[in-house]
Amino acid sequence: MNIIDFGGSRCNHCYKCVRSCSVKAIDLLDSQAVVAADRCTLCGRCFTVCPQNAKTLRSDLSLAKRLVHSGRRTILSLDPSYLGLFSEFEPERAVGALCRLGFGQVRETAEGASNVTAEYVRLLQKGQMDNIISSACPSATAYIEMYYPELTAYLAPVVSPMIAHAMQIKKQLGEDTAVVFATPCLAARAEARDARHAGLVDAVLDFDELALWMAEEGIRPESRPPVPFANPSPAANRLYPVTGGIIAAVEALSGGQDPYRKFYVDGDHNCRELCESMKRGEIHGCFIEMRMCTGSCVKGPLSRGRGGSRFKLRLDYEKLISQAPALQPAPAACRNAERLNLNKVFCNRAPRKPQPDEDDIREILQHTGKMKPSDELDCGACGYPTCRDMAAAVYQGRAEVSMCIPYMHDQAASLSNLVMETSPNIVIIVDRRLNVLEYSAIGEKYFGKNRTEALQMKISDFFDPENFLEVLTTRKNIHGRKVAYPQYDLITLQNIVYLPEQDGALATIIDITASEKRAKQEYERKLKTIDTAQKVIDKQMMVAQQIAGLLGETTAETKVSLTNIGRILLSEGEQDGAARTSAQQEAPLPFSEDKGAGKC
Q1: Can you name the CATH fold of 59-338?
Q2: 13-17, 327-331, 345-349, 564-568 — most confident range
Q3: Phi, psi at 592, each rounded to 5°
Q4: Sign (positive/negative) of CA torsion 88, 91, 93, 94?
Q5: 354-422 in CATH: which number?
Q6: Using CA atoms, how far apart are residues 9 and 32, in angstroms rounded to an integer?
Q7: CA of 240: how far to CAs of 59, 237, 246, 484, in Å?
Q8: What is the distance between the alpha carbons of residues 256 and 248, in angstroms, rounded to a whole number?
Q9: 421 - beta bridge partners?
Q10: Per-residue pLDDT tens for 186-228?
Q11: Average pLDDT of the residues in 316-330
Q12: Do residues 285 and 260 make contact, with C-beta atoms less than 8 angstroms apart?
């Protein structure tokens, strides 16, 4: 896990962290910022400048609590910057509160710094190194190892005060003793995990984490009885966290009896300038106090604004330290240092990335619209100092073409212009005062005004702005509203949306005149067809009625005739029946009693 991680949901592509990172150790992968651990010196600049608070830190707070509650003897090594950052209450009361958390002892890291100071004095008095760069700042030493490995020969081969103090504590109290270090330095978290110092520092906290822990336990430092530190006063070594503090401590111990000129440099840009100067061989015979943080450790990335300005902090430090006992005699300090192996070997940790050639650079630059050197703006908006630097980062997979702000602006503008020039619909943007802010090219066809003319006008100069006023007043959008402009022989379908950031309105006006005319013609044709059909129906009904009338008359006549015929036939039938009956009565029977009767 990285010491610093980014919260993807809050990282909004502002590239401020990339711009602030002097070593460009922040990569853009799929538009997400990622800290490259192999190139990061943990100066903490990206952490402090992020406007969205999109960074998270690896915390050892849970580990420190487990160490304290495990029953293992746990010692807190307190960075001297507590003097300024916890200035609201007496240091001894802070010690009492921290002991209440469960620490066996609270000791000042400046105690370990006294051993480092003694080593620096020994190197100065030997006078064998051309230049000596202090090795107390883990971010500065990482910077040289990664980006100026040829200068590692100038680094004092001495561990930092944190490591020296952990060595001293474990030597005095036993190797099983756990050491927790409290500091505003972010790079100390990585140094504690460095294989060269394995097992010396068990956890690293910042002062906010300590304050949170005390609040969780209901401990108020101002109400705790004072408890002294478990170490003798380290006097001037307490000045390590302020700019020039290492030089002051060295001078206090050595009395200036060495051949080196001394100066300090702080801030990442100043450190870079110094390294470039040393690389050119311009500096000789100097002891250099080098810090990556401007204002040194008291203004480290995890100080989070505590204590005020670095100038106030320095004054507070000097006031407190002036009342402290004098530093222990130099011979005793040197003997104490000799009993600890404070030696550190620095190495070449330069990141290895494929380097692009000129053709690669030119090809990537052309992708961002930079066809010739005069197109290279070197504006730095992407975070890289030059366009060529960004192109190299793109080649190495550390950056993306979309980081070029002027290129993306031109792309967006060209797309916007393309839409405004080619859209078949009328597009108009107005502000709250109804001034026309944007006007598509097609508008000239309908309203007789070109874009240049329209941008000098109000929408009310074209037509009734009633719908625009409705949207601007209610901030509710209009969708699919049909509006006719007889003066232009135009019928439209309008979508008007409110633009909160611009406090204006955007309208898309669709010409539906032709379709409306076709619909009207179709409607009229249908009406005519219906009218014709109705006439046919009416005629058919009339004919049917006429036929029905005729059929009624003939049917009645037929009925009368048939009835008469029936009566006649019936009358005749009755007369025939009566005649037959009379004849049958008079005629002989068909059979007689004579035997021969009935024979043929």
Answers
A1: Fe-only Hydrogenase (Larger Subunit); Chain L, domain 3 (3.40.950)
A2: 345-349
A3: -115, 170
A4: positive
A5: 1.10.15.40
A6: 9
A7: 25, 6, 5, 79
A8: 10
A9: none
A10: 999 999 999 999 999 999 999 889 989 999 999 988 888 889 9
A11: 53
A12: yes
> pLDDT exceeding 70 applies to what percent of the chain?
86
Domain positions in the chain are 1-58, 59-338, 354-422, 424-515
Looking at residue 338, its pLDDT comes to 47
- The torsion region of residue 169 among left (phi > 0), alpha (psi -120 to 50) and beta comes to alpha
Phi and psi torsions of 149, nearest 5°: -60, -25
User: Over 50: is that where the pLDDT of 329 sits?
Assistant: no
CATH number belonging to domain 1-58: 3.30.70.20
Contact call for residues 241 and 81 (beta carbons, < 8 A) = yes
Distance in angstroms (rounded) separating the CA atoms of residues 313 and 311 = 5
CATH no., domain 424-515: 3.30.450.20
203: Cβ contacts below 8 Å, ≥ 6 apart? 60, 63, 64, 67, 178, 180, 181, 192
State the CB neighbour count (10 A cutoff) for residue 423. Answer: 13
- Specify the higher pLDDT residue, 272 or 53: 272
Beta-strand (E) ranges in 468-563? 478-485, 490-499, 504-511
Closest residue by Cα to residue 454 from 472, 477, 492, 427: 427
State the pTM of this model.
0.68
